[in-house]
Fold this sequence. Notes:
Blueprint: E1 5-9, H1 13-24, E2 29-33, H2 37-48, H3 51-54, E3 60-63, E4 74-77, H4 93-110, E5 115-118, H5 123-134, E6 141-143, H6 146-161, E7 168-169, E8 172-174, E9 180-182, E10 188-189, E11 192-193, H7 194-197, H8 200-211, H9 213-221, H10 228-242, E12 247-256, E13 262-273, E14 276-280, H11 287-307
Parallel strand pairs: 1-2, 1-4, 2-3, 4-5, 5-6
Antiparallel strand pairs: 7-10, 8-9, 10-11, 12-13, 13-14
Bound molecules: adenosine-5-diphosphoribose.
Amino acid sequence: MSRPKITIVGAGNVGATAASLLLLKDLADVVLIDVAVGMAKGKALDLMHMRSNEQFVSTVSGTGDYADTAGSDVVVVTAGVPRKPGMTREDLLGVNAGIIKSVLEGVQPASPDAVYLFVTNPLDVMTNLAARISGLPHERVLGMGGVLDTARFTYAIAQETGAAPQEIEALVVGAHGEAMVPLPRLSTVGGTPLDSLLSPDALARVVSNTVQGGASVVELLQTGSAFYAPASSIVRMLEAIVGDTGAVLSTCAFLDGAYGIDGIAMCVPARLGAGGVQGIVELDLDHSERAQLVASAAAIRAQIDAWA
Ligand code: APR
């Protein structure tokens, strides 16, 4: 069987870190493509120099030519500008939307059958715009946001409770931004729901640390936005897609009526495998949780309308 081929558009912090994790896990052959061609080639060469130490058989190459990306199984799009201190993800909309459009013009003809995973922020809007521009089937247009938000939620819960990450089952859905929806009632520590484990104050702190997790990294770095946890979240999704595992992960996926929401991509639990989204998992949300999800959808829709 031929090895999976994954193209990563954007060889910056997120893209190159994802490439490095993919190689360490020996998951696929990787092509890094960037308008900064020397950087893509240089990082690919640097990564290949790890090969004998880390004993992987996968390869990575750097390029500026979309012909080299042809026949990819998955295309991960991280091209774009990251946030600077004081910026929201939404502030990036105009410039990154233009970048997504030009990336699709290059990459889509070369890999018409690939699963596309968008990472560029504002993530939800980019995923929706990309679906509209590309005309790709909805199950092959995904965004990475919920896995990262869930990882940050899990970290905040671990910090507050002292529990090990393995004891925690957490979930964040909705928009990848201020309107995200952490679900304490459906998140557990050692099987106990979070909302019965923590005081309202502690719960509010955990939720705030989750929502502000990305901004906290931006404030500390001063020169860009988070990339280790985003890259790790990308690779978690790629493992499910390339390995056809059917893992259920919070994915920016198209809703065609699930949760009473239609025609918009937003983070919900989705079963991932070969071909992308294999199904949406519809949780039994209470009235308030459902209302938050609907508000998240409205926030994303407003941004799409503002740009279109
Ligand atoms: N085609 C290919 N690559 C491009 C293009 C383009 N049209 N435009 C920009 N790039 C590349 C840049 O040259 C740069 O190398 O995208 C890369 C982005 O890398 P960084 O600036 O390091 O940004 P990074 O931290 O990786 O974040 C990328 O992911 O998490 C999101 O908000 C983040 O939108 C941002 C994206």
